[in-house]
Please model this.
Amino acid sequence: MNKPTVPDDANLPAPGIADPAAVVPPQVFRLVVEQAALAISITDAHANILYANPTFERVTGYSRAEVIGHNESILSYRVTPKIVYETLWAQLKRQRPWNGLLVNRRKDGSRYLADLTITPVLDADGQTTHYLGMHRDVTEMHRLERQVQNHKALIESVVDAAQVAIVLLDENEHVLLDNQEYKKLIGDLGKEPAATLMAALRTQIGPGFDNARASRRGLSNREVLIEQPHRPPRWFSCSISWFEEQDVSADAFYEPARRHYLLLTIQDISELKRQQEAIRINALHALLAEQERIQGLREALAGAVYQLEGPLNMLEAAVKMLERRKESPGDDPLATVLDDAVRNGRETLETLRASIPYDAGELVQPVDLNTVLHDLLKLSTPTLLAAGVVVDWQPAARLPAIQGRATQLSTLFKQLLDNAVEALYESRSGQRDMRVSTLDCGDHVEVVIEDSGPGVPEEWRYKVFEPFFTTKGADQHHLGMGLAIAQEIVARHGGTLDIDASYQPGCRMRVQLPCPRGEPS
Ligand code: FAD
Model:
């Protein structure tokens, strides 16, 4: 392309800049203004209109003939504050362009919002001779902007008034927006509750969390426990939903890009959980008391049967000996009496056996051993406090549920905990420590109960699991059936119960229960 030639004239633009008139014929400038899509007017130095283009006529409703000679104030609706005009004129007086919004009135009286730019036109002496005004009707754009602002304000006030904490996070989990309830949580949980809760959700849900995140799948009502030192634990119900937004930057105008946001709603359910726990523990208390009563009855009757079996067997042997000695045993009145006694004894034994309470079958269902042990420890708190036992409760952070019978498992662990407390109570010296822990071992879960009591001597390591074996002398409370029953419950669940011989001083009971592995949720 040829470069435009620059005439050698002092009045022409600076060197290097082509004289527009030499490149574009002067009449083209007029046509440009005439045909421009902007409302253009040219005034004298007092804002009296000298020229208006067809778009000006269309926007204002005035014909050229009607406005020429009039001041631009003909368009003023008189609601624009005086200060706006003062600023406008102060700027023009400094020979600087001004841009702003004015409320204008059309010829028909209707109003519109004008986005106006006024540029002073200077002569060769630097004097303002004219003004160039260019404006467009931005009423609709303003309406939309205000509407968006109104919606935003409405959403913000609704979100703020919500009784649950709401927080909006970007893809990097940085907080973009929050509400009053969330701000309250900052006081309770530290400077970024969202980060704490997201981390807890990740730990609780495991790989399922990142899968849900990758597929932008929402999560609803996930309960999360937040433990804090020297404070009661807090429970929150969390829901996550995703939404995407079109990128509004200029770069994304022709190549739309999306941004993803995560909306986290958090409801404090600590009080509800406390109530549920109290109800659960009361129910467990009643259930275990009933179990204990039935168990006591069962043990007493089984013990009586066991005790009666011996003498009855001896009696039976005596009858048989007498029968062998006599030729016609029916004639011996003693043999007849003994025979009757044995028969009656057998009948009594059968009656006793039949009155042993039946162990009603219980439904097999997923059981969370952490909850079972937690509830039992809670239930035993008064006993533990009275015995001065210091409990170290170490539950596994994530323990899979086992398939089992909840009441039987509660009975099992209650027995082991009671044994530990009793052993500690017996040890008159030293500190009374108890440690209860759970462990996820893949195909099984392990529960370990340790106490710093006298321990179980090596020679009794297996004997203690036998029925009616007791180291405490048989009395009303110690029939020696506790560990036998515990062993039976563990066996019914396909697990093992043993005493760790290497643990000293004290006793370490180890329960292993199989655990079917499902897909992580
Ligand atoms: P005015 O009495 O006109 O002026 C109000 C104040 O402005 C005065 O107190 C004074 O301080 C200052 N002022 C006014 N005229 C001058 C002047 N010539 N020199 C110095 N200071 C002055 N107004 C609109 O409402 N809508 C428009 O679309 C519009 N377009 C304009 C386009 C151009 C090119 C120019 C130059 C001005 C335009 N104006 C427009 C401004 C208009 O001229 C009036 O100043 C304004 O409408 C206020 O009018 P008024 O009668 O209320 O007050």
